[in-house]
UniProtKB/TrEMBL annotation, chain A:
It comes from Parasphingopyxis lamellibrachiae. This is Formate dehydrogenase subunit delta. It holds the Pfam family FdsD. It comes from the Bacteria.
TrEMBL record, chain B:
Residues 18-96 form the 2Fe-2S ferredoxin-type domain. The keyword Iron-sulfur applies. PROSITE patterns: 2FE2S_FER_2 (PS51085), 4FE4S_FER_1 (PS00198), 4FE4S_FER_2 (PS51379), 4FE4S_HC3 (PS51839), 4FE4S_MOW_BIS_MGD (PS51669). PANTHER family: FORMATE DEHYDROGENASE H, RESPIRATORY NITRATE REDUCTASE. It holds the Pfam family Fer2_4. Residues 238-294 form the 4Fe-4S Mo/W bis-MGD-type domain. GO terms for molecular function: 2 iron, 2 sulfur cluster binding; 4 iron, 4 sulfur cluster binding; formate dehydrogenase (NAD+) activity; metal ion binding; molybdopterin cofactor binding; NADH dehydrogenase activity. The keyword Hydrolase does not apply. Residues 931-948 have a biased composition (Basic and acidic residues). InterPro entries: 2Fe-2S_ferredoxin-like_sf (IPR036010), 2Fe-2S_ferredoxin-type (IPR001041), 4Fe4S_Fe-S-bd (IPR017896), 4Fe4S_Fe_S_CS (IPR017900), Asp_de-COase-like_dom_sf (IPR009010), Formate_Dh-H_N (IPR041924), Formate_DH_asu (IPR006478), MoPterin_dinucl-bd_dom (IPR006657). This is Formate dehydrogenase alpha subunit.
Amino acid sequence: MNSRDNLIYMANQIARNFATLDDAAAANAIAAHIVKYWDPRMRVKIIDSLEQNESKLLPVSRNAVAVLRDTHQSDAP
Amino acid sequence: MGYEPQKDFGTPASRSEKTITLTIDGEKINVPEGTSVMRAAAEMDTHIPKLCATDNIKSFGSCRLCLVEIDDVRGTPASCTTPVANGMAVHTQTPKLQKLRKGVMELYISDHPLDCLTCSANNDCELQDEAAAVGLRDVRYGYEGENHLGLETDSSNPYFDFDPSKCIACSRCVRACDEVQGTYALTIEGRGFGSMVSAGTPIDDFMSSECVSCGACVQACPTATLQEKSVKEIGLPDKSVITTCAYCGVGCTFRAEMRGEQLVRMVPWKDGKANRGHSCVKGRFAWGYANHKERILNPMIRESIDQPWREVSWEEAFSHAASEIQRIQEKYGTRSVGGITSSRCTNEETFLVQKLIRAGFHNNNVDTCARVCHSPTGYGLKTTFGTSAGTQDFDSVEQSDVMLVIGANPTDAHPVFASRMKKRLREGAKLIVIDPRRIDLVRMPHVEAAHHLPLQPGTNVAVLTSLAHVIVTEGLVDEAFIRERCDWDEYQDWARFVSDESHSPEHLEAITKVPAEELRRAARLYATGGKSAIYYGLGVTEHSQGSSTVMAIANLAMATGNIGRPGVGVNPLRGQNNVQGACDMGSFPHELSGYRHVSDRATRKLFEDDWGVTLDPEPGLRIPNMLDAAVDGEFKALYVQGEDILQSDPNTKHVAAGLEAMECVIVHDLFLNETANYAHIFLPGSTFLEKDGTFTNAERRIQLVRKVMEPMNGLQDWEVTQELARAMGLDWNYAHPSQIMDEVARLTPTFAGVSFDRLGELGSIQWPANDATPDGTPVMHETGFVRGKGKFVVTDYVPTDEKTGPRFPLLLTTGRILSQYNVGAQTRRTENSRWHEEDILEMHPSDAENRGLKTGDWTNLASRSGETTLRLLVTDRVAPGVVYTTFHHPATQANVVTTEFSDWATNCPEYKVTAVQISPSNGPSDWQEDYEAHSERARRIEIPESAE
Ligand code: SF4
Ligand code: SF4
Ligand code: SF4
Ligand code: FES
């Protein structure tokens, strides 16, 4: 698995563990998790995957990455 | 300090709070009720001669040497078996007693080789001391009668000898093995004069017996019958220093007994609060690696990993390392470098490494080997309770009524604590084991689990949720506790979730393979059996849902009110000696010491003001992320202290590719480990015997590590990191590790009350220690959770993506064995290898038969990541469909087959579940052969010209 696919896999895996939450709450929880634990370069890459319309991102992961991009992302790295 | 053995009070201390007053030889003394007369006398430094009593086992009353006279009591009772009573008047020295004692002693001595002057225990023998104490000068019976003097010594154990000719049949060894260790390896065979200690096997030697070489019998033996070989070789010690074992998270404390600069033996310290005078084969005996010939003592560098190593001066090594890091940062950016701290090193060393990275490398790319073991504990317990640590002290187990052990194998991995568990189980506490494998605790002498739930690997969350289902739907929750201590709304959400029929044990049985009725009974026992404690290990954390499992465990404890008092709690059994400490010290890329997120401005400011630098507010890379980034060409330099990521981390080929892609790998270790095969700079490390510092064990107990000899490499590990920092321009001037701990205390509220002086005074401190709890905190969350209200977290079962199929139909799970430690870098370099010469694959008879395999066969173990070969053991300890192995030997490289799947929250690797196939094999795999050749090449050291 290359590193971009790996990040998508990781985002989806987090999403699956928040599956009992409703969509909005899940998106926020996943985004918060990523902000807390992912290094800025990893975040840039996952946002980039969203922008490239990466098909492997689950719908709930997409929402989460959108939240990440819109509310959390500073201009790192 | 001169040498004196630790004082022996003869019988164990009483825990009673009631006081009894008596007089001994006319002197008044107050002692707790239940104390023996012998111990009461010892408390006032009055020695009553004794042979069969010692203070870590119950008195037995067989030698009759300890007789006393008591006013108004007939005869001469044995002081070791007579409890004190109010108003009692005891006489320890009377002419009558002297005569009786002398007579007893005479009988013992007449059957004893009188080679005192040449005996290795001369001056360290209780028989000799007591003979002198009773004034025995001559033996009336002569030495010609029937005796045991011709018996042969059993030298089969690599660390101690058994010389039966010196045995006085006091049975202290037998009782120590039973009561302290709980192994029941020894018996006294025969009666009267014919009584002999026996290891009970046909060849009747220690090595072929059930003996696990814990050393309890050796410590208990009053004569030279059972004695460390090292005493024979080196001689008796002349001084001792108290220090802490550097192997596992139990944190046993020892008296390192020295003769000059040479370590003679490690004797468990009876005042150690973690071990209470007990030990296991690793801490007690396996320290020979410290002067193993393969230890590297000089710094070395090389331009590329295909070159041989070249020895250089420390100065050259430091300046080269510093300039490489600076060069790489200039070329690839500030975040292109990082480091890894070690759970094997001291708190102070770990703190310095993370400080070097944050303050010197100017990023947060620091991680620790806890990433691959207990990072889910950090996440799970912080989320639910508010702090990343176990809730109890080890003493708590003495009050437990029920123990639930999940994903842990204490008799192998935490042996001294396991002995304490077994003791409590023999007293009647009940045991539930949740483990795919029938670990020893399930059934052993005098211990049997009430329930063993042999779940399918990877289904922990499903099993825990169905336990919760039973507890909630059968009305077994502690509602008062939940209402008072937890968030009630969150509880209700959780209770609704677990009550759903889809979480019933019957429904989940198809997935978990745990019989529903057995699971229901286990749930009822945990919820209603009295004080219930959960102990867990890496079988919980090393899964794709490791963090969820930890939270599911916390949910169970909160739902049943099993938190916040002795006897209950949630207890991660930490693997390495200082995993807890390494995490506490801020080794994770998102946290500063004391588990405070790097994005927290106020915390950062505290450190910035103290360190005089600006800190990066963004979390750094975790170990797997570092390796991914390296393969992507974005991460170029790594400083690894005391960890062998190539052998210990999953998917060896991926780790190797990551390391190979870096331009500067600095390994700081005792040996040229497997990671060093990919390193450019090698900084030699020092052993725990050569350094000062502290370790923090699994019960949050901070204990001093004391230097007993000079570092063979010239520098303690903290000094190496300090010099590297100075080469990078940081103005560090620590003169002693205590100053580092002072800095930790200054910057970390939970450590505010910790200092080397306080540790010296109290022996140990369990954090949090601050103004509110100056002596530390044995049990956490007593009146409220650290986070305020306890948080119930819904933990939905998400099956791992690592699935069996036609190509890989079996599930591999991995574990530990008693005599070896982790990647084995130390234990493999000791005689411990006699118990475990190679890693073995365990397989159920039905799976073996299908493949035409039998015990001893070479087998090929293959997963989608890679393949290796191992020898087979056919056993029904593992369930059909499951195979098991350890990863102590680099030749096996079990991690060649483990995958990159990991915990969703922390990236802790999923070591415990890999889909594999096993087939017959006739030798090492291609990878093993290539790797062996590569290793040999990578370890070459250039001989300096002058030495040729
Ligand atoms: S070393 Fe330990 S296990 Fe072995 S016989 Fe002695 S007490 Fe028992
Ligand atoms: S071996 Fe030592 S402890 Fe055991 S019975 Fe003999 S003298 Fe006592
Ligand atoms: S139980 Fe652990 S800490 Fe204690 S002696 Fe054994 S390895 Fe060392
Ligand atoms: S020490 Fe009391 S009877 Fe042996």
